[in-house]
Amino acid sequence: MRYKAIALYxxxxxxxxxxxxxxxxxxxIQAVTFLTNFGCDASDTSSCSxxxxxxxxxxxxxxxxxxxxxxFTQIVKSPRFGHGKNMNPCIxxxxxxxxxxxxLMNMVGADFIITGEVLGQRAMSQRKDTLHIIxxxxxxxxxxxxxxxxxxxxxxxPEEQGIIQREKLLGLNGRSRKPQIALAxxxxxxxxxxxxxxCLLTDPIYARxxxxxxxxxxxxxxxxxxLLRLGRHFRLSGKCKIIVGRxxxxxxxxxxxxKSGDISMYVKNTGSPFVLVRGLDAGMFLEIAASLCARYSDxxxxxxxxxxxxxxxxxxxxxVKPADDNIIERYMIR
Length: 334
Prior knowledge:
Blueprint (H helix, E strand, L loop, with lengths): L3 E5 L4 H12 L3 E8 L17 H7 L2 E6 L1 H9 L12 H19 L3 E3 L13 H10 L6 E2 L11 H4 L17 H10 L16 H13 L5 H6 L4 E6 L2 E5 L3 H10 L5 E4 L8 E5 L6 H10 L9 E7 L2 E7 L4 H7 L3
Parallel strand pairs: 1-2, 1-4, 2-3, 4-5
Antiparallel strand pairs: 6-7, 7-9, 8-9, 8-10, 10-11
Helix pairs in contact: 1-7, 4-5
């Protein structure tokens, strides 16, 4: 009989190694990668963002993508076990992912769950006491195996039942990555991301943007959350926000998200940001928005700049002075 495990899989080094250690013991792996509205996906550079597909193909395990959607957004807004230093609900994050993994385990007839967690690697969510809370709250106590740190954690049910051999698991503890890098060489695993500080919710600038958005829009949609990753953000009032693109790619992406009622700006015939003005009282702040557009354009050295303003299909022009440092300090979210 061949046993099966559900693997929480980010595409990173630790979660990949955990799968490979289980495959060594002839465990069939169904990996699941969880996506959220906060950037934990293959398009970002956070630690939870490596594209999981290539490793799944290379090492022959199944992969499922699962988007947590609004369920995760609600947890970020009000986590039972609190936020970390910024907006990261690390403990609640692990709990919801493991609960979802437990449902999948029952659906496909798997025997246990594995994760790539390393004891002591994350200050908030990878302590012994925290791991105990997580296992208890997700209702899977004894059924979650952490292959990289198993020898320094309590024995699990799959080990007790002889499904996996404890002596073939590891006992890593702490933040050093040297043992993982050495093991990766043994497995022929060469393509993995460098260590990072965590997901976007741990980034202080992103966290402040999110706090600002939640204060103005208590129930933002996925599009509004997606905008947090783009451009420079300025809060003009409780109802009005300005987003200024930083490069051509961001300009294109912001323009694609523009919707009815938004106002957009740019400076013609020169390098210019795409500026999005959104809010019920946006019309009150057009001059400030235009000055920010001028400030971040290639015409910023001029005394006066002509800015093109688009409202729906109608365009008109406004001449403004590029914004000074006082304007930026007063309104920028950072």
